[in-house]
Design brief:
It contains no helices and 24 strands. The protein has a seven-stranded mixed sheet with strand order 13-15-17-22-23-19-20, with no helix packed on it. Strands 14-16-18-21-24 form a five-stranded mixed sheet, with no helix packed on it. It folds into three domains: 48 residues, no CATH class; 56 residues, no CATH class; 106 residues, Jelly Rolls (Sandwich). With 241 residues, it is mostly beta strands. It is rod-shaped, with a radius of gyration of 40 Å. It starts with 5 loop residues before the first strand and ends with a strand.
């Protein structure tokens, strides 16, 4: 006679067990149930059993291999697996490769409006920088210290004397354009020389360049930081002292 827990047949009584999960068995082992987590990922386990990897609490997180001897897991994809290796980036920033071929990706800051991205070379992140522009000044006073990366129209009835700055970075430029009838003169501080083709000014305060005609022009660049300037362009008759 069959009961709730047993079934009678001609050869004996068989127990009935309730199994919950995924059933597995082989020729030498009884039927076994492996429980799994809801919404988890089923993977092969040890001894022909199965197990499950719990789902990530965050939607969109990928399943990452744990190698040949560990279960996979939900997490951040590394670069070797086609990911970035990073969890977050600064909003609106640029993304750059890591410090090695498989290193975690890096974030380049956002900079400020109008800046441009300048390379940091082969071993550093690029950075945002403000490009120096050559501004124009209509000079009416008769004496001044010339500012780097600035162009002047010398606009006075009397001679305008502009003295080169004592400190100037390599590549700094100054342009002087004649406008007023008084003309212009570029004076030098101590230790400074201006090179005009094959002719050099007297080094220091005794040297200078000066216009001869009203609309003479000269464009100079700092060729050695602080001490040497070279004429890039000149129009008219320039007096070299």
């Amino acid at each position: 006679m069959a009961t709730q827990n047993a079934l009678n047949n001609q050869t004996g009584t068989f127990a009935i067990n309730t199994l919950t999960g995924i059933l597995t068995a082989n020729s030498t082992s009884p039927i076994t149930a492996s429980t799994v987590t809801q919404y988890g990922v089923v993977v092969a386990g040890a001894s022909n059993l199965v197990t499950s990897v719990a789902p990530s609490a965050t939607s969109g997180v990928p399943l990452i291999s744990g190698g040949s001897s560990s279960n996979p897991s939900f997490g951040t994809a590394v670069v070797a697996g086609g990911g970035t290796g990073a969890v977050t980036f600064t909003a609106y920033s640029l993304v750059a490769a890591g410090t090695t071929a498989t290193g975690v990706f890096q974030s380049v800051g956002t900079g400020t409006s109008g800046q441009v991205l300048i390379s940091g070379g082969s071993a550093a992140l690029p950075s945002w920088s403000t490009i120096s522009t050559n501004s124009w000044v209509d000079q009416t006073g008769t004496t001044l210290t010339l500012a780097i990366n600035t162009s002047y129209t010398m606009n006075a009835a009397s001679l305008i004397t502009g003295t080169l700055p004592a400190t100037a970075a390599y590549g700094s430029t100054i342009r002087v354009v004649g406008k007023g009838a008084g003309g212009w003169k570029i004076a030098q501080p101590a230790g400074v020389t201006i090179h005009f083709s094959g002719v050099n000014t007297t080094t220091g305060t005794g040297g200078s360049l000066a216009s001869t005609l009203q609309y003479d022009v000269v464009d100079i660049v700092c060729s050695i930081a602080n001490t040497d300037w070279t004429v890039m362009e000149a129009i008219g008759n320039i007096t070299i002292v």
